[in-house]
């Protein structure tokens, strides 16, 4: 293999940038890394903006501090430390959120696993259940390799209200999807593992919670309990900028990769407009774009893998932010809205309440609402003005007060933003990756469309892909 290596990272979101940093850290000196981003900005769904003189996130607002599998730092925290930004980590000052049920606000019950309760009595205020339905059938809830939708597991045992009022809103807040469509193994792996052993859903939830607690205790360090979430003072775009700098990569913006073919030195990329394409040679490629553009690039290289990858569907969402002068807000971080309530809003964050470092002495509050559910996205066709007006009206309705007219508003649309993992997703992906690894070991897939949503998962996905590339090119990957 020629030296220095030339590695192309297609996609400039946090997955691609994490891959580029890991490549810089572990690939041989002199390795040439180029990041190709089709848009005019790096960061993907990480985008910090400004509204009415305040910093606000127009994309992902925070990251998990702890890795659920190990109990140690999440991959996002490890990257933040690697980039020298750890002193900028801040945590929510208000953690309690609410559910909108029967047009009223109710505290989200504690002791659940993504809304699935281990104690039915704890959810009695918001959902009716039939404890007798969660009977012991004499065998584990799931077979050794079985995957079902979350709803298929929970509805028969805990009833419709638990799914519709608890599980759906919590899953919807992360995936903009529905419990009846989303894979249990992909979205709730700890519960899936427990369900392969336990005979009742209550027992499975408790077993998953106990396993998580054991992992956390084993990894605990002396001192106060670690907060669940963190963000960066100054905005998540600081992470993007620092990663781009630390990677030492050549950054190509407005550079769409239109074709990917095996070439004399590894790979040939066709970059730029169809009328004036640029041909680029690379020894290896990390492909971090969403599933459908990834499938288009794979179609001529690995058609079966392309068909599997391209079958993944996505939900579109919009984030609507209002700057309100001295509004009457409850002491909550925000609220979630079940689809059964009939509102456009599916979730809202009281931004300057949740993140105390953003509080303003003049009392101006930032309130952000998420709009758009999978399969029910027609209202995203509303104009920005109509979305802003509808969100303002529904916030007033939920809170039971007439909110003041906003000083400013912003609508951020994320088309095709959130993957919808159908049951069997991980098995299908593993088969596609195995076939690709055998035929083309220097082409690796990474990103939310494959491994899951959330900043830590995307960072880990990019770093893992970088290690595979180094190994394929003859390095240690360590």
Automatic annotation (TrEMBL):
It catalyses: coproporphyrinogen III + 3 O2 = coproporphyrin III + 3 H2O2. It is an enzyme of class 1 (oxidoreductase). GO terms for molecular function: oxygen-dependent protoporphyrinogen oxidase activity. Pathway: Porphyrin-containing compound metabolism; protoheme biosynthesis. Keywords: Cytoplasm, FAD, Flavoprotein, Heme biosynthesis, Oxidoreductase. Gene3D superfamilies: FAD/NAD(P)-binding domain, protoporphyrinogen ix oxidase, domain 3, Protoporphyrinogen oxidase, mitochondrial, domain 2. Its cofactor is FAD. Residues 14-470 form the Amine oxidase domain. It comes from the Bacteria. Its EC number is 1.3.3.15. The keyword Magnesium does not apply. Transmembrane segments: none annotated. The keyword Flavoprotein applies. It is found in: Cytoplasm. GO terms for cellular component: cytoplasm. Pfam families: Amino_oxidase. Involved in coproporphyrin-dependent heme b biosynthesis. Catalyzes the oxidation of coproporphyrinogen III to coproporphyrin III. This is Coproporphyrinogen III oxidase. It comes from Micromonospora halophytica.
């Amino acid at each position: 293999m020629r030296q220095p290596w030339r590695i192309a990272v297609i996609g400039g979101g946090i997955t691609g940038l994490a891959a580029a940093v890991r490549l810089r850290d572990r690939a041989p000196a002199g390795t040439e890394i180029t990041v190709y981003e089709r848009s005019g900005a790096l960061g993907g769904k990480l985008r910090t903006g400004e509204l009415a003189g305040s910093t606000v996130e127009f994309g992902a607002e925070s990251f998990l501090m702890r890795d659920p599998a190990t109990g140690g730092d999440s991959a996002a925290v490890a990257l933040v430390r690697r980039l020298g930004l750890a002193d900028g980590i801040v945590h929510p000052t208000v953690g309690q959120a609410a559910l909108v049920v029967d047009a009223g606000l109710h505290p989200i019950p504690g002791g659940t696993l993504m809304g699935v309760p281990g104690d039915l009595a704890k959810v009695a205020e918001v959902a009716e259940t039939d404890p007798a339905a969660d009977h012991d059938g004499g065998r584990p809830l799931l077979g050794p390799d079985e995957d079902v939708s979350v709803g298929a597991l929970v509805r028969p045992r805990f009833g419709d209200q638990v799914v519709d009022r608890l599980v759906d809103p919590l899953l919807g807040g992360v995936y903009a999807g529905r419990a009846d469509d989303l894979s249990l193994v992909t979205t709730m792996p700890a519960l899936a593992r427990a369900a392969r052993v336990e005979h009742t859903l209550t027992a499975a939830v408790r077993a998953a919670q106990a396993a998580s607690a054991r992992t956390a205790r084993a990894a605990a360090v002396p001192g106060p309990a670690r907060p669940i979430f963190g963000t960066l003072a100054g905005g998540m775009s600081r992470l993007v900028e620092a990663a781009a700098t630390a990677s030492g990569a050549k950054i190509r913006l407005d550079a769409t990769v239109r074709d990917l073919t095996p070439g004399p030195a590894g790979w040939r990329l066709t970059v730029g407009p169809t009328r004036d394409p640029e041909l680029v040679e690379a020894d290896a490629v990390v492909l971090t774009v969403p599933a459908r553009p990834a499938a288009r690039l794979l179609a001529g290289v690995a058609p079966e893998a392309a068909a599997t990858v391209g079958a993944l569907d996505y939900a579109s969402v919009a984030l609507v932010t209002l700057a309100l002068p001295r509004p009457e807000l409850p002491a909550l971080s925000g609220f979630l809205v079940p689809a059964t309530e009939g509102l456009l809003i599916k979730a809202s964050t009281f931004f300057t309440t949740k993140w105390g470092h953003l509080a303003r002495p003049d009392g101006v509050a930032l309130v952000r609402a998420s709009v758009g559910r999978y399969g029910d996205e027609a209202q995203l066709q509303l104009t920005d003005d109509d979305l802003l007006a509808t969100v303002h009206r529904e916030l007033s309705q939920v809170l039971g007060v007439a909110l003041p007219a906003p000083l400013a508003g912003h609508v951020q649309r994320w088309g095709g933003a959130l993957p919808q993992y159908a049951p069997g997703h991980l098995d299908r992906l593993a088969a596609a990756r195995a076939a690709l690894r055998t035929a083309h070991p220097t082409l690796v897939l990474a990103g939310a469309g494959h491994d899951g949503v959330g900043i830590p998962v995307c960072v880990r996905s990019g770093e893992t892909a970088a290690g595979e590339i180094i190994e394929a090119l003859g390095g240690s990957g360590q």
